[in-house]
Amino acid sequence: MDKVFINNLTVSGILGIHAHEQRHPREIRISAVATTDIKAAALNDDITQTVNYSTLAKIIARHIENTPHLTIEALIEALAAEIMQNERIDSIWLRVEKPNAVPAAESVGIEITRSR
Question: Is the pLDDT of residue 21 over 90?
Fold first, then answer.
């Protein structure tokens, strides 16, 4: 299976259980790997026959910018569900990170894989 990926997309959004996190957008970092079949797109040199990484990035960014979440768990599951609406995607691996959320750690986060 082929893979389309996004590495360390940075988006601002509301994420966190603490009051100060719910008032101000913070940096959220997302990586994604979607498995798909790129053969038709490659053969025909046609972006409409594959998963467009630009469109995938826009879906992720729009969700984070417009939908506040208390937990990374809720955010990552919502992203996975939205992404899997694309019938060309067989599975999605997501990593969501909150940079500087824990003292002395570059970031904390969660990774999941969801498939059909």
Answer: no
